[in-house]
Structure formats: C-alpha cells, structure tokens
Amino acid sequence: MRKARFGFAVAALLLIVAFGARPAGAKQVTPPSDPGPTVVATGLLNPRGLAFAPNGTLYVAEAGSGGPVDLGGGTFAGTTSRISAVNVGGALPATSMPVVTGLISVSSPDGSSSTGADGLSIQGGRIVSIITGAHQFVDQVPAGAAPPDILGAAKSQLGRLIKANPGGQFETRGDVGGTDFTYTLSCQTANPPCDPNSDFPDANPYGVLALPDKTYVTDAGANTLDVVRANGSVQILAYFHDPGVNVISLNDEVPTCIAQAGGQLYIGTLNGRVWRYNGTSTLQQVPLSTPPGPPVVSIGGCTADAAGNLYLSDQFGNNVWKMAPGGATTIVAAISDPSGIVVGPDGFVYVSANSSTTNGQIMRLQP
To answer: Does the structure show a pLDDT above 90 at 198?
Structure first.
C-alpha cells in the first residue's frame, strides 16, 4: 500500500487518525442527557487528534490545508498545520483558537486530504503531537520545487514529535519517522522482522499516546509500534503483520491509533482490527463482537474511558463504536469521516468529523 509522502501524491484516505485518552485510574463520569450528536466546533482544517488538558481545554490537531508550493503530482505544501484550543464549557459551537502554528502540511490541490499534525496527547502541562512523514522524503523533492523555508520546516518536523506549551512555543523531539524509514530499508532481516510484501521503504508515524515518562507512537507507514523515551531516543517495539483477511483492500495492517485501558495498550488499525500489546514484541488480536449489520471497517482513532470501554472511530464505515471490556461492540453514532476521538472530563465522547476536509467539525456524543 502506498502511504502519504512529502513530495508525492497524498493518499490520505489511508492515513487519517488520532488519539485521545483519559488518565489511568480516572473516575468515570456520567454525562447529562444529550440526544446529540452536538456540533462543538466547525471550520477546522482536516481535524485529527483530540486531547483534553487538565484544565478542561480541548485541543485539536489540524493537519492543515497544504499551501502554495506545488510539489508536482497534485501535491501542495505549506505551513498551515496547527494545534487549536476549543472551550467546550460555553456556548456551542465554540470558536477554535490556534495555539501552535507554522507546522508543515501536505495536501491535495483543494487543501483536503492533508497530512501534518495528526496524533495528539497531553503530557503533564505540554501538548504532544506527531507530524506525519519522514525527513528522508524531503530528499525526493525535485530541485527547485520548494523554497528553503518550506524544505527546512519539512526537514526539521516530518516524523518528529512536537512538544508545545499552552503559549504555543514548541520543540521537536524523537525522530520516529527517520528511525522507522531506516528500519524498513532492511526490515526483513531486522528485529522485529517485517512482511516481505509491504510497500517499503516507508514511514508515517501517526497515533500518539503520551505517558509521564515516555510516548508511544503508531507508524501507519512502517506498520510499527514505537516508544520515544524522555531523552528523545526511539525504539521499535513491535511490527504489525498483515493477517491477510482484510475488510478493505490493503497489503499492510496500518496501525493508526493507540489507547490505554486497564493498564494495557490497545492499537487500532485501518483494516478494522484491534490489537493488544503485552509489553514484549508479541501482539494479540482482540476479537470484536459486533451485532448483525455493518462490520467495523477501518479504525482511524481510538480512546478509552475509566471503565475500560474502548471507543473506535470507523473512518471508512462512518461510525463511532463502543467496545466493552468483554469485546461486545456496538455503534454509538453515525458520523461522517470520523478520526480523532477522546472522552471528556464531562463524560461525553468527542470526535473529529469530516476529517479530510477544510470544513471539519468536532462532534459531541452521548457514550
């Protein structure tokens, strides 16, 4: 499968994901009755990851709308990706306020189906995101196709964690994309070994889960689960092999999001599967018990509540699912092109909608 690359056509249908999670041990809150879905914010530029700060502010990663630089092949680049804040405690829909700006964005000509800041999480008082891609892709841009400022931003941001404070100042840490791209050059003989039929080399780190002392990242291009330590070092923990029975036509498993429930890590994939990571290189598939009707098609975002329920954004299926600890999986709501998802401190479920457009929304759902 061909994933989105800086300087090449953007296959963003295969790369729209995000993460939001509540702290482990947080008390479950029952939200007030709301028939919903309720529109929380509109006019967002390809909204992806969602995360709540301790003060109740909702942050959204916007992958942006590309920019004026024509890289060829129907791909445009700029620094329109950003992370915005939304006050969900007042009148809705609320106005989103850009906080972190100047992030690299690659899109189709009309600004849709972009990649940029995608996964999102909170680490203490800092906002943590990941810029999808790898710095090696910059070397593939034709000479003279992009000005130095765009190339410089791409080189320094693609595939790296963005760590920002609420004032908007940010730094890059952990070269996840570069590490994973290098791994896929010879991964059939590496540890862990990869599938021989994957479209490598590639790297598109996408989902993010920030814990106090480390940050987990899922790479939808390299099909890996990575961890970034506090010192910025990157380690590949596991490789997602394609089981070969896919709801949609993909040759790779494409891990897109990561959530923590009951002290364990759960990873969703674009092939509509959930995997549990046991702390070693072993990944265990978690069965989904769905009622008669549509299956879970493609997971683009996942999160968990304090009771251990997982919530899954089914991007291609246009549904949000709730998976109970025993595996029973039911539809929460039908949402168009859902992506990032998070359970708020008020007990509601928040999800990015129309997430591959320049008029994206955040919707609030009764869990």
So the answer is: no
